[in-house]
Structure formats: structure tokens, C-alpha cells
From TrEMBL, chain A:
This is Uncharacterized protein.
From TrEMBL, chain B:
Coiled coil: none annotated. Keywords: 4Fe-4S, Iron, Iron-sulfur, Metal-binding. This is 4Fe-4S ferredoxin-type domain-containing protein. PANTHER family: ADENYLYLSULFATE REDUCTASE, BETA SUBUNIT (PTHR43687), FERREDOXIN III (PTHR43687:SF1). Residues 117-146, 147-178 form the 4Fe-4S ferredoxin-type domain. The keyword Iron applies.
Length: 123, 290
């Protein structure tokens, strides 16, 4: 049985670039689920001052992140000195639907990623 | 004020053993209010645990506890101070106020007061050409000990200005808070790459690099000063040049307004060029300068 991933949700609270309908719906569904998860106010803000928590998140094993473009999220962690581990799944609240994202976030640890998300995770 | 201290408080919405689950609506509202205030929040349930360790000195556990009695908890290692609060029937504003009070006067960034705006390098695309280092006049970029380009001074970056991203020949510079792709980190299409290669940017507007253009104008202005002694004319020229850049939407007005004087631009451009050349020359396999 694979290790359960840590779920991380970014609120993008410092700029309104993530559609509020999507980010609110994703948070609502995470809250409705019975699962534990981590949330941050804004990954960019944390990366800007190299918040040590990014390093801890990057080191916590498997990660599933609901944030924005995978290229940007990967770059933010890297720039903050906390490169994401291989296999990190990044779901894009700027381009995917809330339903898609929550389905992928909350799927069992051993369930494979649907095709478009695989591409995102590998970006 | 932008703080560069670690977040002073880790907030945990605790619904694990010994606590009662929050009503779903209240859970969402509390979580949303805390995130929008700038806090990071973990939710802990009995069925799964979060794996992230706490780096914070203070851990604040919020929960609904039997008899509204939050338990007293202690970190066995003594490193972390654990505070617990019962939030039964509290509205989100009151919960935020309670968290604020626990934080005390420790500084923390808050949404709405500052926009995290800085370049992020996609190293899978970057070829270390140093064009961004040569281009940026605000010393945002620097070179690592391994002579690799890196973002060194985030705070110097001018909010809403993605100009360095536009001049990157490999579309390797992102601004995650930008609206449109590929600057926002969206996938780079062949067309995007082609466009960047064509340098549809400031250069094409001025027939060359913006700083060279400003430098030329500076030189021209100096020459005019000697002939006509008319600094006003030179300023008019510069203004026209900058107004065109603004009207074409390439650079925000306030960024251009904060550009140094032409002489300072010239000096900075030379310094940046020299740094870039030195870094390139130091790269493995670099040809010695002839």
C-alpha cells in the first residue's frame, strides 16, 4: 500500500489570479471530506521570503498540491531552496475545474492519475 | 511592510481524538477566514494525519472540545509552545481575532498589503544566457557560486513589471501572479517560443535594447545640452520614449517613472553586462575572450 500523500491547498490570497469560484469550491470539498490536509495562504508569498515551511512540505514524502500552473509551483519551491520530490502531483486551479481537482486530490493513494493530470505533474 | 521572518504561528484545526468534529459550514468559514488573513492552517482528522512537522515555535490548536474545555498540551521536547483554544459556536471573525491575539505583536505579512511579485526561473528551460541579468536595472538577478543565474533580490522587482520575462529568449522566466501565459507559468507553445525568439518586445519598439536606446538618448541629450543647453528638450524626448512603452503595455508607468537617470542606467547596464560576461566566461567549456 503506497504511502498516503500529504494534501496541500494554496489559497492564492495575495492576488486574485485563481478564479475564486474554483478555489472556494476546492476548499469546500476538502473541508467536507474526512481527510487531513495542509493549507497555505499563498505559496508565492512564502517563496518570496523563503519560508522554511516550504522545505518541510517538500520533505514530507508524497505531495498533492492544488495551486496553479505546475511549472510555476515547481519553480517557486525550487527557488525557495526546497525542490519538490519526484512524483509530486500539482493540480491547476487556474485551468482545471474544481470537480477535477477534488477528484484527483481525494482519490486513494494507490489510484492512478487521470491522463491530463499526469501531464501536469510531469511538467 | 514585508516581513522576512518565519511565520510566527502554526494554526491547526483539530478534529482528532479528544475533539468533536466542527459543523461542515463552520469548518469552511473558519478555514477561509484564517487563510484570507494570511495564516497557514492544517486540518487534522482522526482518520488521517498530516505529515508536516512544525517548525514554528508556537502551535495553536483550535477545536470544539467536550464541555468546551480545551486540553492543556505540552511538547515533550520542549521546543514548541502549544496553545489550545475551544472555538465552539464562535463565528469566523471571532476565531480570527482569537488567533491574532495569540500571535500578539509578532509581525506577519497579510494579503492586500503587498503583492508577491518577482521572477521565477524555470531551470528546465533556462540556458544561463544571462540576458535577464544584463537587462534588469534593479539588481533582481545575480549569479550563484556555480555561475548560474538566480533571483537574488526579490524585493527589488517592480510590481506588475514582467519585462525581463519578455526578453528571455527561452521563455524561462515566469511571474506566477501575472494574468496571461506563458509568463504566468502556463505551458510554452511553439508559437510562444518563436515569438520570444523574434523579440517582440521593447527592443522592437525602439530599434534595439531599451537601455541602449535610453543610453543613446542620453548621449544625444548630452550633445544637445552642449549645443542648446536645453535639458527640457532631453527630458521631453525621454518622456516620449517612455510613454510609448507604457501605451503599448510593455512596462507599467510607475516602473518607468522609477528608472534611474540615463547616466545611472548606462552605469548599471555596464556593470550588469560585465557581471554577465564574467559569469559566462566562468562557465565550464567557455571560450576564453579574444
Amino acid at each position: 500500500m503506497p504511502e498516503a500523500p500529504v494534501l496541500l491547498y494554496c489559497r492564492c490570497a495575495y492576488a486574485q489570479v485563481v478564479p475564486s469560484g474554483v478555489k472556494n469550491a476546492v476548499l469546500a470539498q476538502l473541508c467536507e471530506s474526512g481527510t487531513s490536509f495542509e493549507t497555505v495562504s499563498d505559496l508565492c508569498e512564502m517563496a518570496a521570503h523563503r519560508d522554511p515551511r516550504l522545505q518541510q512540505l517538500a520533505q514530507c514524502g508524497r505531495l498533492r498540491i492544488a495551486a496553479c500552473y505546475p511549472r510555476a509551483v515547481t519553480g517557486l519551491f525550487h527557488q525557495a531552496g526546497a525542490p519538490l520530490p519526484e512524483g509530486t502531483e500539482i493540480l491547476n486551479m487556474r485551468s482545471q475545474t474544481a470537480e477535477d481537482i477534488t477528484q484527483q486530490m481525494l482519490r486513494p493513494a494507490d489510484a492512478p492519475l487521470p491522463a491530463p493530470a499526469v501531464a501536469a505533474a510531469e511538467a | 511592510m514585508i516581513t522576512h521572518t518565519a511565520r510566527p504561528l502554526k494554526v491547526v484545526l483539530y478534529e482528532g481524538n479528544g475533539a468533536l468534529p466542527l459543523p461542515p459550514e463552520a469548518r469552511l468559514k473558519v478555514m477561509t477566514a484564517l487563510l484570507d488573513k494570511g495564516y497557514a492552517v492544517s486540518r487534522v482528522t482522526p482518520t488521517s494525519v498530516t505529515a508536516t512537522p512544525s517548525d514554528d515555535h508556537t502551535l495553536l490548536l483550535l477545536g470544539t472540545f467536550p464541555q468546551r474545555q480545551a486540553p492543556a498540551l505540552e511538547d515533550v521536547t520542549g521546543r514548541i509552545q502549544i496553545e489550545t483554544r475551544d472555538i465552539t459556536d464562535l463565528d469566523p471573525e471571532t476565531v480570527v481575532a482569537l488567533v491574532d491575539k495569540t500571535r500578539g505583536d509578532k509581525p506577519m505579512n497579510e494579503p492586500g498589503k503587498w503583492k508577491p511579485w518577482f521572477p521565477v526561473i524555470d531551470y528546465s528551460r533556462c540556458t544561463n544566457c544571462m540576458q535577464c541579468l544584463s537587462f534588469c536595472l534593479f539588481d533582481v538577478y545575480g549569479v550563484s557560486e556555480e555561475n548560474k543565474i538566480q533571483v537574488q533580490n526579490n524585493d527589488n522587482c517592480k510590481t506588475n513589471c514582467p519585462a525581463c520575462s519578455r526578453v528571455c529568449p527561452e521563455v524561462a522566466i515566469m511571474f506566477p501572479k501575472y494574468q496571461a501565459g506563458p509568463i504566468n507559468g502556463d505551458d510554452v507553445s511553439a508559437a510562444d517560443h518563436g515569438r520570444e525568439k523574434m523579440k517582440v518586445d521593447i527592443s522592437s519598439l525602439l530599434g534595439g535594447d531599451i537601455y541602449s536606446a535610453l543610453k543613446d538618448r542620453s548621449a544625444a541629450a548630452k550633445s544637445r545640452f552642449s549645443k542648446e543647453r536645453s535639458p527640457d528638450k532631453a527630458l521631453d524626448e525621454r518622456k516620449k520614449c517612455l510613454t510609448k512603452l507604457v501605451s503599448d503595455g510593455f512596462i507599467p508607468m510607475d516602473v518607468l517613472a522609477s528608472l534611474p537617470s540615463p547616466d545611472e542606467i548606462l552605469r548599471k547596464a555596464e556593470v550588469a553586462k560585465a557581471r554577465a560576461a564574467a559569469a559566462l566566461a566562468a562557465q565550464p567549456g567557455a571560450q576564453p575572450a579574444s
